[in-house]
Amino acid sequence: MTSRRVVIALGGNAMTGADGSATPQAQRDAIREAAGHVAEVVAAGVEVVLTHGNGPQVGNLLVKNELAAKVVPPVPLDWNVAQTQATIAFTIADELDAALTTRGLPQRTAGLVTRTLVDTDDPHFREPSKPVGRFVSREEAERFVALGQVWEDRGPRGWRRVVASPEPRSVVDSPAVHALAAAGFVVVCAGGGGIPVTDDGGDGAPLRGVEAVIDKDLTAAVLARDLGADTLVIATDVANVMVDFGKPSQRPLGRVTVAELRAHAADGQFARGSMGPKVEAVLRFVEAGGERAVVTSLENIAGAVTGDAVGTVLTTA
């Protein structure tokens, strides 16, 4: 079997160097390698929509905000997400276009700055808990608290900013993504989970950006649903989801049912800050009517799209 339209969520290992370096050259080199794997998916005759993380990139912008706070006003977090979306998207477009050309493929890449709708009443806004940026001293943190930000004392390492991480409701710009994909473009969109916007709970109300970060894997599930994709692939740095991770009984999951994967999640098998959101994303997509979802390593994404032999594969059957 081969998918018709696939949404691929690229993880941090596709955006930074092997040692975690986020210099411009390290990012471009990592993206160039990822682009080769994505091009192989396109070569299989599949419509591809890409989304990606942006944690290190946003973190760098936040540091610049902090260091320049006495000179220029800091920009809000939704602006940072938008800026990193554009930077990463054009870099992916450059490298992926080159990879497609090398393979003699006619498709080209389009990057789309993308908004994700969140609920004003989401409980995460009342209790921000997602840490972002660097650790600073209490004196530095107080300067940003005065600007309306929330910072927490994280012990010996210092203070760190925490922000809301609300649930994604819909991808506002999915009709534009659909149109570009249908026209033959590989679309890069919804980076970093999308720019968080709210309509203040009213139909037809103007949208406005809010200070938050959205989990990119959960947004990928919503995007895949909105686009009518038949497959969602979560690309990470391991070949399979593991149960009993780090124990002698550790084992990889291959093809699994929704009930089996839900049971493992309920048993606390998947860490909240790493594999947990990826598992939740694939579960939500299939439970919402998607045909199949795969969690696997970047180098396996072509195989994940064309068959069930690689990765952890979740299907309706």
UniProtKB/TrEMBL annotation:
**Gene Ontology terms, MF aspect:** carbamate kinase activity
Keyword set includes Transferase? yes
Give the organism, scientific name: Geodermatophilus saharensis
Q: Which CDD domains does this chain map to? A: AAK_CK
Gene3D superfamilies for the chain: Acetylglutamate kinase-like
Annotated protein name in UniProt: Carbamate kinase
BP-aspect Gene Ontology terms: L-arginine deiminase pathway
Entry keywords, A to Z: Kinase, Transferase
Q: Domain named Aspartate/glutamate/uridylate kinase: which ranges?
A: 5-297
| InterPro entries xref list | AceGlu_kinase-like_sf, Asp/Glu/Uridylate_kinase, Carb_kinase
GO CC, alphabetical: cytosol
Record field: catalytic activity: hydrogencarbonate + NH4(+) + ATP = carbamoyl phosphate + ADP + H2O + H(+)
Similarity annotation? Belongs to the carbamate kinase family.
